[in-house]
Amino acid sequence: MNDKKQPLSPHLSIYRWQITSTLSILHRLSGLVLFLAAFDFAIWLGSIALGGDTYVGVRSFFSTNILVIIWVLVSLSFFYHFLNGIRHLLWDLGKGFEESQVKLTGLLVVFLSVILTALFWYCLLTRFG
Amino acid sequence: MNILHMFLKLLCLAPFEHARQHWVSQRITSIAIVVLGLWFVYQLLFVLTSFDHPEVFAWASDPLNAIILLLLSLYAIYHAELGVQTVLEDYVATERLRTYTLYLLRFLRVMVVVISFVAIGCIIKGGGASPV
Question: Which of A4, A11, A48 best tests the B interface by mutation, with the highest count of B CBs <10 A?
């Protein structure tokens, strides 16, 4: 067993800042946020099934201020991971590998995910606010 | 594939996927989530009228909605497991700890799968088709 010898990758702290690596790390971070959100989704489904006090309790817990900040983060993660995921799928098809394209689509993904998150909350709040 | 393996796979307890299958599964689930995720955002913004229990229950107990909600939950947690698995394999250096965390991850996924199935089952059983 060469347990200790396996190199850790990627070494986040020694790379010079670049948009490509930053977006790649953000893809993983947003993925981790969505991993946690998947549990909330299951809890929400469970509370709908149980109804009554359970649903009211889960709903009021999910509506507390701190949780609302987390939902904003979750929605931003969703739209970012969604758009950047499409960028990854296009790479899998062998498209968009030129350095200029990589930078352009990267900026586009960041820009659009912020716009979509703002639009999402605008629609949500005008409907339910 | 023998019947034991199929049974384990159904319970999400089969051995970890080979790298190639892992790669393929991640792509397939991502495409499913693109469609199902857009559906969910659309439902939140334009279909659901309230977050009170009767409205949400009526909406979720529509058989089509119930099935899509279940699929979204299953694909999301499976996709998430595949992704987190990659992160763990990259950053957890010791083999033993890596194995433990991967099994913990799998346990969490099975939990979400079970909760989702039971929840949607109860919702359909208790609601039936709503005339919306």
Answer: A48
Check the CA dihedral A38-A44-A50-A53 and report its sign.
Answer: positive
Smallest CA–CA distance, residue A28 to chain B, in Å, is 8
Q: Which two tokens stand for residue B122?
A: 């109860």
**Nearest residue on chain A to B109, judged by CA atoms?**
A39
Reported as a pLDDT band with limits 50, 70 and 90, residue A77 is very high
d(CA A86, CA B79): 14
Q: Over the stretch B60-109, which tens digit does the pLDDT of each residue have?
A: 999 999 999 999 999 999 999 999 999 998 888 888 999 899 989 999 99
Answer whether A128 sits within 8 Å of B108, measured CB to CB.
no
Query: B71-89 as b/e, with b when 16 or more CB fall inside 10 Å?
Result: bbbbbbbbbbbbbbbeebe
Write down the residue that tokens 């339910």 correspond to.
Answer: A128
* CA B73 to centroid of chain Cα atoms: 3
In the 3-class helix/strand/coil scheme, how is chain B assigned residue by residue?
CCHHHHHHHHCCCCCCCCHHHHHHHHHHHHHHHHHHHHHHHHHHHHHCCCCCHHHHHHHHHCHHHHHHHHHHHHHHHHHHHHHHHHHHHHHCCCHHHHHHHHHHHHHHHHHHHHHHHHHHHHHHHHHCCCCC
pTM equals 0.89
- Is the per-residue pLDDT at B12 higher than 60? no
Q: Which of B94, B120, B126 sits opposite A45 (nearest CB)?
A: B120
* Euclidean distance between CA atoms A40 and B13, whole angstroms: 23
